[in-house]
Records
---
Amino acid sequence: MFSKACEYGIKATIYIALKSYQGQRVSLKDIASEINSPEAFTAKILQKLSRDHVINSIKGATGGFEIEKDRISSIKLSQIVNAIDGDEIYKGCGLGLATCNEHHPCPMHGKFIGVREELRYMLETTNLEELALGIKSGLTYLKV
Amino acid sequence: MFSKACEYGIKATIYIALKSYQGQRVSLKDIASEINSPEAFTAKILQKLSRDHVINSIKGATGGFEIEKDRISSIKLSQIVNAIDGDEIYKGCGLGLATCNEHHPCPMHGKFIGVREELRYMLETTNLEELALGIKSGLTYLKV
DNA sequence: TCTAATTCGGATAATTTTATCCTATTTAAT
DNA sequence: ATTAAATAGGATAAAATTATCCGAATTAGA
């Protein structure tokens, strides 16, 4: 469904949100260990999310990654997915046709539109805060 | 969402079903041209579908690919996807956790379960006949 | 029997995705 | 200033996916 990079990106952002919520800044090493991802690869993904202003990166000795507390609840899953995988997955044709719409639908169009719409809605309405809260309360997990 | 191989596989199977429905057997060349896919790569995918008994392949001079008419309505999209991409996409965790269930959910689990379930249901209930019929009636398209 | 049309399948190549390595740069603290 | 800890980013490598090439095998029909 999502690329590995996107999976890492989502998990990393949730973890950063959780820690930011608690007033803590987190290092790459910490993130990679917490979400069980390869460090250098995760670094590239965080750079991308930082350039896209989903997260903030702070260089230097006490540097790391964080998100302003008051932005956490307004950041949607779709922004993360978009920054890494683009929007093809929740806006594009299921069979990869360049143009697929009501006037020129692929064979799956009518069947797929509900799935895609539900995915789009889920990604565009789910915010970081609710995801981080699940981790905080020990109800959900980022690894294993 | 689906791999390129899977997209080709679905389109190819729909086209084979359409022609089989009309009592015609189709060649690889015909298929590749009709769904706009690379011939040799499509051949590998058709081999896989053939080994999985989704389609039949006939060797030799007047050979090609076909599906028994009376099986067309009973073949589900999920069988094609399964043969090529496996079932991870509609059964696995959205964040790639090896174990993700109600007792040990990933942060997205509760949000993702609806999407995944709708995708699973769509794939498991949509049959080849309805997809081929759309093409036959000129309402849907396999390319452009 | 021969030929032509076809699928099969092994080998290889190209491209994309995933992953690693290493140096430069930044910054807080001593 | 110096040092240590951290991110940035270019170069490269490994693995997976997508794509191509070509000879072997099969089969209908002349």
---
Amino acid sequence: MDAFYASVELLRYPDLKGQPVVIGGGRRHEPVLREDGSREYARLRDYTGRGVTTTATYEARDLGVHSGMGLMKAAVRAPDAILLPMDFDAYRMYSRRFKAAVAELAPVIEDRGIDEIYIDLGDVPGARDAVGHDPLGGVRALAQEIKNNVRRATALSCSIGITPNKLLSKIASELDKPDGLTILTLDDIPSRIWPMSPRKINGIGPKAAARLATLGIHTVGEVAAADPAWLIEQFGRSFGAWLHEASHGRDERPVVTHSEPVSISRETTFERDLHARHDRAELGEIFTRLCVQLAGDLQRKGYLGRTVGIKLRFEGFRTVTRDLTLDLPVQDAEAIRAAAGACLKRVDLSQRLRLLGVRMGGLCRPGDVQARRRTPRPARAVAEPLPQNLTLF
DNA sequence: TCTGGGGTCCTAGGACCC
DNA sequence: TCTGGGGTCCTAGGACCC
């Protein structure tokens, strides 16, 4: 989906069409209805806090505002841009609608989050009918139908890439955004893919791209030209081999239509950094609230879990995790809170905190009888000796 | 003026088991 | 008396994605 959150908001506030709009941050900056019926919107320049841009309209992107960017930084680049808070319920509703619209025409769908899917057209009648005289005419028509159906169901546009595999489709879908439709064959790889930055490949992030650049590699084509043995030397057996394959557009992953969650979590970044001692009561409340929310999520979704984990982010952004695997799966807030509390005791809390999170892994369904480990776990040595008065929580 | 929240997967060491 | 090999589980951290 194109600029998904922002596009959904524009359906609600059509007067903002054509303007730089940024979605992100919290509650406070809802538009206010004036007496004459017009609306007063918050501007990016008025924002203070720790929020980030989740989505920016293409007009805002032209001003240098991109998703993931801190709103305070975005405000320097586009002070006059409109700022709207997130409305996840609305996005979820539109997400369901667009996926249902696609499924009417092509039911083999892999979920990739709220605004993205992979579709397997392999068995869709029509996609291959034209093979022989116009091999791609059939798929192009089908893709256009899918786009039409999504627009009919949601009034939103999407961009589609049609290629032999998921890796290439992900890249292709971004070649003609917004409202794009791009078809690529293996023959197009040298001309269309190799000139690109390695960053365009799903799985090459900022770190890998920076390392490639250090090695003098700035395009996918240069990765493809590199000796695979050398790539493995530089990046390890698994990632190095994958880099070689990916740069040649090779990807055998199937479209996965069903998957079970691995973990469920809740976390929150505080408006100001909190100290375990000075802000003990506040932190304790937040900690308990996270556990209660997590328990609610687990119960609503019908899972229990055996591995309770916590995540702490300190001032300066250093992140630490601890987890604890219980003998039996649990689901209730009290058990989660107790296990998470035990995890917390293993962390040095002398630095102030900016984030606290609670996570449940090792998920199973209530019916499952978990084979419980026969042997009790040995007591683990505490990694860091803790300052005496900071261990209580 | 630093950097959300919800996830997945990978690596690597140590414990433990056969 | 200085010592295998294979496997799983647990834990911590990090890269990456939407």
---
Amino acid sequence: MRPSPERHGQLLATAAEVFAAEGYDATTVRRIADAAGMLAGSLYYHFDSKEAMLDEILSGFLDELREGYDAVLAAALGPRETLEALVTESFREIDRHRAAVAIYQKESRQLAAQPRFRHLADTQVHFEQAWLGTLERGVADGVFRDDLDIRLTYRFVRDTVWVAASWYRPGGLHRPEEIARQYLSVVLEGIAVPR
Amino acid sequence: MRPSPERHGQLLATAAEVFAAEGYDATTVRRIADAAGMLAGSLYYHFDSKEAMLDEILSGFLDELREGYDAVLAAALGPRETLEALVTESFREIDRHRAAVAIYQKESRQLAAQPRFRHLADTQVHFEQAWLGTLERGVADGVFRDDLDIRLTYRFVRDTVWVAASWYRPGGLHRPEEIARQYLSVVLEGIAVPR
DNA sequence: CTCCTTCCCTAACAAGTGTTTGGTAGATTA
DNA sequence: TAATCTACCAAACACTTGTTAGGGAAGGAG
């Protein structure tokens, strides 16, 4: 009746890996139980439902990301430095919560429509405000170009950051800070040699 | 026994919309039949299986995209112009096959592992070669920066282009050519004002 | 009118789904 | 030693899944 937090976390991590690898809907609880070395029913000693696992996985990541973003904004840096910090923070979160980010990236749109996952939509609005505000401030300050559709730019930045979770492998060739550096270099200066 | 091609295409388009909106695994054939105004079993007069629908939807899009890319490469333009043409062609395909692209973007990774969808992996290699080759040629010619990880840049370009399918709405504010223009402007020159 | 083709419905199938219930081995506590 | 708690198993539950088989209404062709 009172499962240990350690085991709880272990199983949650296992579930996250399977969800990320095979998709939430395509994943059966028996598949998760297999990966954890137990039977399907036994999972219900630790969790209320399959949905509850997903909820906990996403919330764990999103709460931490929100904290990270808020800390960046609280630092009150210039717009360019804020953008750099937001991007770097994002790639760090991808490094720490790769599976959760991959799941979020794939399922958030449909989940946000479900009543149970309404909080995803709220969180998205919060993040959007962080990015859009920074971009607008940058345009106003003259450090970002003013001839771009700012909403389109926001989507470009957001999407490219988060899709990285689909190919990023922790312990791989690139550290998150290095990816952030290269990514920022492209977004800020472009890939063309100035002519 | 010999369904008409028109009805076949209609139903395929309906299925594509539902797949794109709710995800392939989460979509039941009864849901598709509902959207088409018929019963689940009736679909099997037109299609062999749910998988066959998906296969046909993806192949229709991928074949056309492959033709488009090949035509661009055959034109033998400079690297920068080739990149511009590839991006523009991609956004045009998103405009024409929005649903198919959204499905492809979300499911291709897992599908490529299935034997039936092996051809997806082949196609991906083909596309990767088109992009990577263009980037490499550009670096060699001195029109693209040589201080970037070219593979990272490729992923950046690829992901941002295709992820647009998840928010793009045909008939919306932006025409595909306009999106391509703005996108290219960001990728080539960056969002920062040169200092 | 009759035959044939097209397109759909009705009704069911076996397999797989998330979940529940009752039980139990083994450690921990009293 | 006895009682309790933790973490799992065994077996089943109601329901949904993709799919199939047979039938029939509508319309054109002979």
